[in-house]
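Standup notes, structure subgroup. Blocker cleared on the zinc ion input:
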Amino acid sequence: MDICALDVPSTEASVTDMLAPAGSIAEVDRLGDEIAELSAHLDAATARLLDLIRGFDAKGGWNNGFRSCAEWLSWRVSLDLGAAREKVRVARALGSLPRLAQALAQGELSYAKVRALTRVATPESEERLLAIGRAGTAEHVERIVRGWRRMDRKAEALDAARQHAGRALHVYQDEDGTVTVRGRLAPEVGALLVKALAAAREALYQRARVEQAEAGPADVSAETPTMEQQQADALALLAETALHHGIDPGAPGERYQVVVHVDAPVLADPDLPGQSVLEDGVRVSAETSQRLACDAGRVVMRHDSDGRLLEIGARTRTIPPALRRALQHRDRGCRFPGCGVRFGQGHHIRHWAQGGPTTLSNLALLCRRHHRAVHEEGYQVARQPDGELQFRRPNGWPIPDVPPAAGVPGDPVQAIRERNEAEGLVLGAHTATPGWLGERLDVRYAIDVLHPLAR
Ligand SMILES: [Zn+2]
Ligand SMILES: [Zn+2]
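Run returned:
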Protein backbone atom coordinates (compact mmCIF):
# COMPACT_ATOMS: atom_id res chain seq x y z
CA MET A 1 0.00 0.00 0.00
CA ASP A 2 1.23 3.47 -0.82
CA ILE A 3 1.29 5.53 2.36
CA CYS A 4 2.92 8.58 0.83
CA ALA A 5 -0.21 9.72 -0.88
CA LEU A 6 -0.40 13.10 0.83
CA ASP A 7 0.32 16.10 -1.27
CA VAL A 8 3.21 17.75 0.57
CA PRO A 9 6.30 19.57 -0.65
CA SER A 10 8.89 16.86 -1.12
CA THR A 11 12.20 18.46 -0.19
CA GLU A 12 13.38 19.26 3.32
CA ALA A 13 14.21 22.82 2.42
CA SER A 14 10.68 23.59 1.41
CA VAL A 15 9.30 22.09 4.66
CA THR A 16 11.58 24.37 6.66
CA ASP A 17 10.52 27.29 4.52
CA MET A 18 6.90 26.53 5.33
CA LEU A 19 7.58 26.49 9.10
CA ALA A 20 9.82 29.53 9.04
CA PRO A 21 8.99 32.34 6.66
CA ALA A 22 11.90 33.39 4.44
CA GLY A 23 14.54 35.40 6.23
CA SER A 24 13.96 33.92 9.67
CA ILE A 25 15.90 30.66 9.22
CA ALA A 26 18.94 32.29 10.72
CA GLU A 27 16.84 33.39 13.66
CA VAL A 28 15.56 29.84 14.26
CA ASP A 29 19.15 28.58 14.14
CA ARG A 30 20.11 31.19 16.66
CA LEU A 31 17.28 30.05 18.96
CA GLY A 32 18.53 26.48 18.65
CA ASP A 33 22.06 27.52 19.53
CA GLU A 34 20.80 29.49 22.48
CA ILE A 35 18.87 26.45 23.76
CA ALA A 36 21.98 24.30 23.44
CA GLU A 37 24.21 26.85 25.14
CA LEU A 38 21.85 27.52 28.03
CA SER A 39 21.40 23.75 28.49
CA ALA A 40 25.17 23.43 28.87
CA HIS A 41 25.09 26.21 31.47
CA LEU A 42 22.28 24.47 33.36
CA ASP A 43 24.18 21.15 33.30
CA ALA A 44 27.26 22.90 34.69
CA ALA A 45 25.08 24.44 37.40
CA THR A 46 23.52 21.01 38.08
CA ALA A 47 27.02 19.66 38.77
CA ARG A 48 27.38 22.31 41.45
CA LEU A 49 23.95 21.50 42.85
CA LEU A 50 24.95 17.82 43.09
CA ASP A 51 28.19 18.80 44.88
CA LEU A 52 26.15 20.72 47.43
CA ILE A 53 23.73 17.82 47.87
CA ARG A 54 26.63 15.39 48.37
CA GLY A 55 28.19 17.64 51.02
CA PHE A 56 24.86 18.18 52.75
CA ASP A 57 24.17 14.44 52.72
CA ALA A 58 27.63 13.54 54.02
CA LYS A 59 27.22 15.96 56.92
CA GLY A 60 23.79 14.47 57.69
CA GLY A 61 22.23 17.91 57.23
CA TRP A 62 18.85 16.27 56.60
CA ASN A 63 18.97 14.24 59.78
CA ASN A 64 16.92 16.73 61.76
CA GLY A 65 13.62 14.94 61.61
CA PHE A 66 13.75 13.69 58.01
CA ARG A 67 14.20 10.05 57.20
CA SER A 68 16.52 10.58 54.27
CA CYS A 69 18.29 13.20 52.23
CA ALA A 70 15.80 12.60 49.40
CA GLU A 71 12.82 13.30 51.65
CA TRP A 72 14.45 16.50 52.86
CA LEU A 73 15.14 17.54 49.27
CA SER A 74 11.58 16.78 48.27
CA TRP A 75 10.32 18.92 51.15
CA ARG A 76 12.78 21.78 50.75
CA VAL A 77 12.81 22.25 46.98
CA SER A 78 9.56 20.51 46.01
CA LEU A 79 11.10 17.76 43.90
CA ASP A 80 8.94 14.70 43.52
CA LEU A 81 10.36 11.93 45.66
CA GLY A 82 11.55 9.80 42.74
CA ALA A 83 13.53 12.66 41.20
CA ALA A 84 14.92 13.58 44.63
CA ARG A 85 16.13 10.01 45.22
CA GLU A 86 17.77 9.99 41.80
CA LYS A 87 19.56 13.29 42.51
CA VAL A 88 20.92 11.96 45.80
CA ARG A 89 22.00 8.71 44.15
CA VAL A 90 23.83 10.53 41.34
CA ALA A 91 25.38 13.01 43.79
CA ARG A 92 26.74 10.16 45.92
CA ALA A 93 28.00 8.21 42.89
CA LEU A 94 29.86 11.23 41.47
CA GLY A 95 31.82 11.45 44.73
CA SER A 96 33.95 8.54 43.51
CA LEU A 97 33.72 9.27 39.77
CA PRO A 98 35.77 12.45 39.27
CA ARG A 99 35.96 12.25 35.46
CA LEU A 100 32.19 12.03 34.99
CA ALA A 101 31.71 14.76 37.62
CA GLN A 102 34.10 17.00 35.72
CA ALA A 103 32.42 16.35 32.36
CA LEU A 104 29.07 17.42 33.86
CA ALA A 105 30.64 20.45 35.54
CA GLN A 106 32.06 21.57 32.20
CA GLY A 107 28.72 21.23 30.44
CA GLU A 108 30.20 18.51 28.26
CA LEU A 109 27.86 15.71 29.32
CA SER A 110 24.19 16.30 30.03
CA TYR A 111 22.68 15.38 33.40
CA ALA A 112 20.60 12.71 31.61
CA LYS A 113 23.75 11.02 30.32
CA VAL A 114 25.54 11.27 33.64
CA ARG A 115 22.48 9.90 35.45
CA ALA A 116 22.48 6.87 33.16
CA LEU A 117 26.26 6.32 33.27
CA THR A 118 26.42 6.49 37.08
CA ARG A 119 24.10 3.47 37.24
CA VAL A 120 26.95 1.23 36.13
CA ALA A 121 30.16 3.25 36.43
CA THR A 122 32.90 2.23 38.85
CA PRO A 123 36.26 3.96 39.25
CA GLU A 124 37.70 1.22 37.00
CA SER A 125 35.16 1.56 34.19
CA GLU A 126 34.67 5.33 34.44
CA GLU A 127 37.10 6.26 31.68
CA ARG A 128 35.49 3.93 29.11
CA LEU A 129 31.98 5.02 30.04
CA LEU A 130 33.00 8.67 29.75
CA ALA A 131 34.10 7.97 26.19
CA ILE A 132 30.69 6.41 25.49
CA GLY A 133 29.00 9.50 26.96
CA ARG A 134 31.03 11.80 24.76
CA ALA A 135 30.51 9.83 21.57
CA GLY A 136 26.87 8.83 21.77
CA THR A 137 23.49 10.50 21.99
CA ALA A 138 21.48 10.27 25.22
CA GLU A 139 19.55 7.37 23.71
CA HIS A 140 22.74 5.47 22.78
CA VAL A 141 24.08 5.96 26.28
CA GLU A 142 20.82 4.69 27.76
CA ARG A 143 20.94 1.54 25.57
CA ILE A 144 24.60 0.83 26.25
CA VAL A 145 24.05 1.26 29.99
CA ARG A 146 21.19 -1.25 29.84
CA GLY A 147 23.43 -3.74 28.03
CA TRP A 148 26.25 -3.07 30.49
CA ARG A 149 23.90 -3.72 33.37
CA ARG A 150 22.77 -7.03 31.90
CA MET A 151 26.42 -8.06 31.72
CA ASP A 152 27.00 -6.90 35.33
CA ARG A 153 23.96 -8.85 36.47
CA LYS A 154 25.11 -11.96 34.69
CA ALA A 155 28.45 -11.69 36.47
CA GLU A 156 26.70 -10.99 39.78
CA ALA A 157 24.37 -13.95 39.37
CA LEU A 158 27.36 -16.19 38.72
CA ASP A 159 29.03 -14.77 41.82
CA ALA A 160 25.94 -15.32 43.98
CA ALA A 161 25.54 -18.88 42.67
CA ARG A 162 29.20 -19.56 43.46
CA GLN A 163 28.83 -18.15 46.97
CA HIS A 164 25.67 -20.15 47.58
CA ALA A 165 27.26 -23.35 46.28
CA GLY A 166 30.29 -22.71 48.49
CA ARG A 167 28.26 -22.56 51.72
CA ALA A 168 29.47 -24.98 54.32
CA LEU A 169 29.61 -25.51 58.04
CA HIS A 170 32.11 -27.97 59.49
CA VAL A 171 31.59 -29.06 63.07
CA TYR A 172 34.07 -31.59 64.43
CA GLN A 173 35.01 -32.88 67.83
CA ASP A 174 38.58 -32.88 69.10
CA GLU A 175 40.08 -35.65 71.20
CA ASP A 176 39.62 -33.65 74.37
CA GLY A 177 35.90 -33.30 73.62
CA THR A 178 35.92 -29.63 72.52
CA VAL A 179 34.11 -28.88 69.30
CA THR A 180 35.64 -26.86 66.48
CA VAL A 181 33.37 -24.87 64.17
CA ARG A 182 34.47 -23.53 60.81
CA GLY A 183 32.28 -22.39 57.97
CA ARG A 184 31.51 -20.14 55.06
CA LEU A 185 28.11 -18.46 54.61
CA ALA A 186 26.45 -16.49 51.81
CA PRO A 187 26.59 -12.75 52.61
CA GLU A 188 22.95 -12.34 53.70
CA VAL A 189 23.08 -15.46 55.88
CA GLY A 190 26.34 -14.23 57.34
CA ALA A 191 24.74 -10.88 58.14
CA LEU A 192 21.93 -12.70 59.91
CA LEU A 193 24.40 -14.69 62.00
CA VAL A 194 26.48 -11.63 62.86
CA LYS A 195 23.35 -9.77 63.92
CA ALA A 196 22.12 -12.69 66.04
CA LEU A 197 25.54 -13.04 67.71
CA ALA A 198 25.60 -9.32 68.45
CA ALA A 199 22.11 -9.50 69.97
CA ALA A 200 23.08 -12.51 72.07
CA ARG A 201 26.30 -10.81 73.24
CA GLU A 202 24.33 -7.72 74.12
CA ALA A 203 21.85 -9.79 76.16
CA LEU A 204 24.63 -11.66 77.98
CA TYR A 205 26.56 -8.49 78.65
CA GLN A 206 23.50 -6.64 79.92
CA ARG A 207 22.55 -9.57 82.10
CA ALA A 208 26.06 -9.76 83.50
CA ARG A 209 25.99 -6.05 84.29
CA VAL A 210 22.68 -6.35 86.12
CA GLU A 211 23.94 -9.35 88.12
CA GLN A 212 27.15 -7.55 88.93
CA ALA A 213 25.24 -4.53 90.13
CA GLU A 214 23.15 -6.77 92.35
CA ALA A 215 26.21 -8.59 93.71
CA GLY A 216 27.74 -5.27 94.63
CA PRO A 217 30.79 -3.46 93.32
CA ALA A 218 33.21 -5.41 95.53
CA ASP A 219 33.13 -8.45 93.27
CA VAL A 220 35.93 -7.95 90.75
CA SER A 221 37.06 -11.57 90.57
CA ALA A 222 35.31 -12.17 87.22
CA GLU A 223 37.39 -10.69 84.41
CA THR A 224 35.70 -9.42 81.30
CA PRO A 225 35.86 -12.22 78.70
CA THR A 226 37.66 -11.56 75.42
CA MET A 227 35.69 -10.86 72.26
CA GLU A 228 36.34 -14.43 71.05
CA GLN A 229 35.07 -15.81 74.34
CA GLN A 230 32.01 -13.57 74.18
CA GLN A 231 31.30 -14.80 70.65
CA ALA A 232 31.48 -18.41 71.85
CA ASP A 233 29.09 -17.63 74.70
CA ALA A 234 26.77 -15.86 72.28
CA LEU A 235 26.69 -18.89 69.98
CA ALA A 236 25.81 -21.08 72.95
CA LEU A 237 22.96 -18.75 73.85
CA LEU A 238 21.70 -18.82 70.23
CA ALA A 239 21.67 -22.63 70.26
CA GLU A 240 19.90 -22.72 73.60
CA THR A 241 17.33 -20.16 72.50
CA ALA A 242 16.66 -21.95 69.21
CA LEU A 243 16.03 -25.27 70.92
CA HIS A 244 13.96 -23.65 73.65
CA HIS A 245 11.62 -22.11 71.06
CA GLY A 246 11.35 -25.26 68.98
CA ILE A 247 13.12 -23.69 65.95
CA ASP A 248 10.05 -21.73 64.91
CA PRO A 249 10.58 -18.21 63.58
CA GLY A 250 6.95 -17.44 64.58
CA ALA A 251 4.25 -15.40 62.87
CA PRO A 252 5.36 -11.92 61.79
CA GLY A 253 3.01 -10.28 64.28
CA GLU A 254 4.55 -12.15 67.18
CA ARG A 255 8.09 -11.91 65.94
CA TYR A 256 8.29 -8.19 66.43
CA GLN A 257 6.10 -7.94 69.45
CA VAL A 258 7.79 -6.13 72.26
CA VAL A 259 6.72 -6.54 75.84
CA VAL A 260 7.56 -3.78 78.28
CA HIS A 261 6.99 -3.83 81.99
CA VAL A 262 6.60 -0.32 83.28
CA ASP A 263 5.85 1.06 86.68
CA ALA A 264 2.77 3.22 86.28
CA PRO A 265 4.34 6.40 87.76
CA VAL A 266 7.21 6.25 85.23
CA LEU A 267 4.79 6.38 82.34
CA ALA A 268 3.22 9.53 83.70
CA ASP A 269 6.47 11.25 84.61
CA PRO A 270 9.87 10.00 83.40
CA ASP A 271 11.56 11.74 86.33
CA LEU A 272 9.79 9.60 88.93
CA PRO A 273 11.63 6.54 90.24
CA GLY A 274 10.50 3.17 88.92
CA GLN A 275 11.59 0.81 86.23
CA SER A 276 10.77 0.05 82.62
CA VAL A 277 12.28 -3.15 81.29
CA LEU A 278 11.77 -5.33 78.25
CA GLU A 279 10.67 -8.90 78.90
CA ASP A 280 14.24 -10.18 78.69
CA GLY A 281 15.36 -7.80 81.40
CA VAL A 282 16.91 -5.14 79.16
CA ARG A 283 16.20 -1.69 80.55
CA VAL A 284 14.75 0.94 78.26
CA SER A 285 14.48 4.65 78.87
CA ALA A 286 11.28 6.07 80.29
CA GLU A 287 10.86 8.01 77.01
CA THR A 288 11.02 4.79 75.00
CA SER A 289 8.46 3.09 77.19
CA GLN A 290 6.20 6.13 76.80
CA ARG A 291 6.49 5.80 73.03
CA LEU A 292 5.80 2.07 73.09
CA ALA A 293 2.79 2.65 75.35
CA CYS A 294 1.49 5.55 73.25
CA ASP A 295 -0.26 3.19 70.82
CA ALA A 296 -0.21 -0.34 72.14
CA GLY A 297 -2.05 -3.25 73.62
CA ARG A 298 -2.06 -2.85 77.37
CA VAL A 299 -2.49 -5.25 80.27
CA VAL A 300 -2.49 -3.73 83.70
CA MET A 301 -1.04 -5.95 86.41
CA ARG A 302 -0.97 -5.00 90.04
CA HIS A 303 1.88 -6.11 92.24
CA ASP A 304 2.26 -5.69 95.97
CA SER A 305 5.34 -4.06 97.45
CA ASP A 306 7.23 -7.39 97.35
CA GLY A 307 6.54 -7.79 93.63
CA ARG A 308 3.89 -10.51 94.07
CA LEU A 309 1.19 -10.40 91.42
CA LEU A 310 -2.17 -9.36 92.86
CA GLU A 311 -4.43 -8.83 89.86
CA ILE A 312 -4.37 -8.89 86.04
CA GLY A 313 -6.77 -6.74 84.03
CA ALA A 314 -8.18 -7.54 80.58
CA ARG A 315 -6.05 -6.71 77.55
CA THR A 316 -7.20 -3.45 75.95
CA ARG A 317 -5.95 -1.34 73.08
CA THR A 318 -4.87 2.16 73.99
CA ILE A 319 -6.56 3.43 70.85
CA PRO A 320 -9.74 1.46 70.05
CA PRO A 321 -10.05 0.16 66.45
CA ALA A 322 -12.87 2.55 65.45
CA LEU A 323 -10.94 5.61 66.60
CA ARG A 324 -7.80 4.33 64.88
CA ARG A 325 -9.74 4.06 61.61
CA ALA A 326 -11.02 7.61 62.03
CA LEU A 327 -7.47 8.80 62.75
CA GLN A 328 -6.10 7.04 59.66
CA HIS A 329 -8.89 8.54 57.59
CA ARG A 330 -8.29 12.07 58.89
CA ASP A 331 -4.47 12.16 58.86
CA ARG A 332 -3.89 9.75 55.92
CA GLY A 333 -0.26 9.33 56.90
CA CYS A 334 2.52 10.64 59.07
CA ARG A 335 1.87 14.29 59.87
CA PHE A 336 5.52 15.25 60.36
CA PRO A 337 6.37 17.96 57.79
CA GLY A 338 7.72 16.46 54.57
CA CYS A 339 7.12 12.84 55.60
CA GLY A 340 3.81 11.42 54.38
CA VAL A 341 4.59 7.75 55.11
CA ARG A 342 1.15 6.23 54.77
CA PHE A 343 1.00 4.05 57.86
CA GLY A 344 1.88 5.03 61.33
CA GLN A 345 1.18 4.94 64.99
CA GLY A 346 -1.32 7.02 66.88
CA HIS A 347 0.56 9.54 68.98
CA HIS A 348 -1.08 11.09 72.03
CA ILE A 349 -0.14 14.78 71.86
CA ARG A 350 -0.64 14.76 75.63
CA HIS A 351 0.23 11.25 76.83
CA TRP A 352 -2.64 9.20 78.23
CA ALA A 353 -0.54 8.38 81.27
CA GLN A 354 -0.45 12.12 82.00
CA GLY A 355 -4.20 12.39 81.69
CA GLY A 356 -4.35 13.12 77.95
CA PRO A 357 -7.64 11.91 76.48
CA THR A 358 -7.74 9.33 73.69
CA THR A 359 -9.71 11.54 71.30
CA LEU A 360 -9.14 12.58 67.70
CA SER A 361 -8.07 16.07 68.72
CA ASN A 362 -5.40 14.70 71.06
CA LEU A 363 -4.09 12.20 68.49
CA ALA A 364 -1.81 12.57 65.49
CA LEU A 365 -0.60 9.88 63.13
CA LEU A 366 3.21 9.56 63.06
CA CYS A 367 5.42 7.02 61.32
CA ARG A 368 7.78 4.94 63.43
CA ARG A 369 10.73 7.23 62.70
CA HIS A 370 8.90 10.39 63.66
CA HIS A 371 7.16 8.84 66.63
CA ARG A 372 10.66 8.26 67.98
CA ALA A 373 11.58 11.86 67.09
CA VAL A 374 8.85 13.32 69.30
CA HIS A 375 9.31 10.92 72.22
CA GLU A 376 13.04 10.40 72.36
CA GLU A 377 14.72 13.11 70.32
CA GLY A 378 13.17 16.23 71.73
CA TYR A 379 10.96 17.21 68.80
CA GLN A 380 7.71 18.78 69.88
CA VAL A 381 4.23 18.73 68.47
CA ALA A 382 1.24 20.74 69.63
CA ARG A 383 -2.22 21.37 68.29
CA GLN A 384 -2.86 25.05 67.81
CA PRO A 385 -6.20 26.74 68.56
CA ASP A 386 -7.11 26.59 64.84
CA GLY A 387 -6.69 22.80 64.94
CA GLU A 388 -3.48 22.76 62.88
CA LEU A 389 -0.45 20.86 64.16
CA GLN A 390 2.74 22.76 64.91
CA PHE A 391 6.00 20.80 64.94
CA ARG A 392 9.16 22.23 66.48
CA ARG A 393 12.81 21.26 66.53
CA PRO A 394 14.45 20.38 69.85
CA ASN A 395 15.69 23.98 70.04
CA GLY A 396 12.15 25.30 69.68
CA TRP A 397 12.36 26.46 66.07
CA PRO A 398 9.19 25.69 64.18
CA ILE A 399 9.28 23.25 61.24
CA PRO A 400 6.96 24.63 58.57
CA ASP A 401 4.85 22.26 56.46
CA VAL A 402 6.12 24.06 53.39
CA PRO A 403 9.46 25.85 53.69
CA PRO A 404 9.73 29.46 52.51
CA ALA A 405 10.80 29.72 48.88
CA ALA A 406 14.46 30.51 48.25
CA GLY A 407 15.25 33.99 46.98
CA VAL A 408 16.01 34.04 43.26
CA PRO A 409 18.05 36.82 41.62
CA GLY A 410 16.17 39.09 39.21
CA ASP A 411 17.52 37.27 36.17
CA PRO A 412 18.44 33.73 37.30
CA VAL A 413 19.68 32.74 33.82
CA GLN A 414 22.10 35.64 33.75
CA ALA A 415 23.24 34.77 37.28
CA ILE A 416 24.02 31.18 36.22
CA ARG A 417 25.90 32.37 33.14
CA GLU A 418 27.93 34.88 35.15
CA ARG A 419 28.80 32.32 37.75
CA ASN A 420 29.86 29.73 35.16
CA GLU A 421 31.95 32.31 33.35
CA ALA A 422 33.52 33.40 36.61
CA GLU A 423 34.66 29.76 36.97
CA GLY A 424 36.38 30.00 33.63
CA LEU A 425 33.86 27.85 31.74
CA VAL A 426 33.54 28.63 28.05
CA LEU A 427 30.26 27.07 27.01
CA GLY A 428 28.85 27.18 23.54
CA ALA A 429 26.13 25.68 21.42
CA HIS A 430 28.30 22.64 20.67
CA THR A 431 29.90 21.96 24.06
CA ALA A 432 27.64 18.95 24.58
CA THR A 433 27.34 17.77 20.98
CA PRO A 434 28.17 14.05 20.78
CA GLY A 435 30.78 12.74 18.39
CA TRP A 436 28.25 10.44 16.73
CA LEU A 437 28.21 10.71 12.95
CA GLY A 438 24.96 8.89 12.33
CA GLU A 439 26.23 5.31 12.10
CA ARG A 440 24.01 2.49 13.44
CA LEU A 441 24.63 1.54 17.07
CA ASP A 442 25.32 -2.17 17.69
CA VAL A 443 24.83 -2.45 21.47
CA ARG A 444 25.94 -6.11 21.66
CA TYR A 445 29.17 -5.35 19.83
CA ALA A 446 29.79 -2.27 22.00
CA ILE A 447 29.37 -4.27 25.22
CA ASP A 448 31.56 -7.09 23.91
CA VAL A 449 34.33 -4.61 23.20
CA LEU A 450 33.95 -2.38 26.25
CA HIS A 451 32.74 -4.41 29.23
CA PRO A 452 35.67 -5.88 31.22
CA LEU A 453 33.79 -9.15 31.92
CA ALA A 454 32.51 -9.73 28.38
CA ARG A 455 34.26 -12.49 26.48
ZN1 LIG B 1 3.46 8.94 71.02
ZN1 LIG C 1 7.01 10.34 59.43
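Discussed briefly. Residues 334, 336, 339, 341, 366-367, 369-370 surround zinc ion (ligand 2) (CB under 6 Å).
Next: hand off to the docking folks.
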